[in-house]
Amino acid sequence: MSEAKRNFLEGARAEAPILIGVFPFGLIYGALAVNSGLSTTAAQLMSSIVFAGSAQFITAQLFSESAPALVMILTIAVVNLRHMLYSASLAPYLKDLPMSWKTLLSYLLTDEAYAPSILHYEKEGLPRFKHWFLFGAGISLWLNWQVSTAIGVFLGASIPENLSLDFALPLTFIAMIVPVMKKFPVVAAALSAGITALLAYSLPYKLGLILAALAGIVVGTFLEGRAAAKGAQ
After folding, report:
1. Is 103 exposed, middle or buried (0-12, 13-18, 19+ CB in 10 A)?
2. Full-prediction pTM beyond 0.85?
3. For residue 133, what are the contacts with CB-CB under 8 A and spacing of at least 6?
4. What are phi and psi of 124, to 5 degrees?
5. What is the Cα–Cα distance from 5 to 190, expressed in whole angstroms?
6. What is the pLDDT of residue 22?
7. How far apart are CA 81 and CA 74, in angstroms?
8. What does the longest C-alpha to C-alpha distance in the chain come to?
9. Cα–Cα distance between 24 and 155 in angstroms, integer?
């Protein structure tokens, strides 16, 4: 087996447990998008082009509330700022790749693909064909998301409300977050974002999510900066 193929399969295997929780998440999004007024084509294309679960959920909910386009754009932009942090975290391991690979991997970079990949890179260092691990994790998630969204769109309102598929979302994120919460700045960022989200839950247009994301980013960046400054002394 080639090293590239081995890394690809390792990434897919590392992603497999997460896919169990993501699949019902995709079902919920598909049904929610259609019931919020989006066409079946628009709902599916959001999964294919945007490929960002949280942004898609927020868009569907804001669309159903007839929120202004500017509010939608700003909300999605702030919520997805975390991808800049993911990119910065992965940059030391992937910086030497050609632009074609960087473009592909940036499209596939999500919460669920980042978590197992950064753990793998921190453990394995900089082996050759290392990018195939993230590609394996990312493409596995992409395929899972397209299929689950399509089923959710097709079933639409026929999914019983008492099925409570939404329990899978917090469990999935807990499974991703816990293994990487090893440093104080990471723990502090997660706690500050969670507390802010709870306190600002009642704000309209999901603005509490924006505040929570900003709080986590500011706290995490500040503490990481302090830690780096102390390490340089």
Report:
1. exposed
2. no
3. 7, 8, 10, 11, 14, 117, 120, 121
4. -95, -20
5. 35
6. 86
7. 11
8. 61
9. 12
Average pLDDT, consecutive stretches of 10 residues, N- to C-terminus, the chain (233 residues): 90 92 86 87 92 86 84 81 84 92 94 91 84 96 95 76 57 64 82 91 79 85 79 64
pLDDT for residue 184? 84
- Give the model's pLDDT for residue 195: 93
Residue 109 has, within 13 A of its CA and on its CB side, a CA count of 22
Structure-token match 């302090």, residue found: 226
Whether the CB-CB separation of 23 and 145 falls below 8 Å is answered with: no
Q: For residues 163 and 33, give the distance between their C-alpha atoms in angstroms, rounded to a whole number.
A: 18
With CA atoms as reference, report the closest residue to 11 among 138, 168, 105: 138
Q: Which two three-digit tokens encode residue 225? A: 């900066």
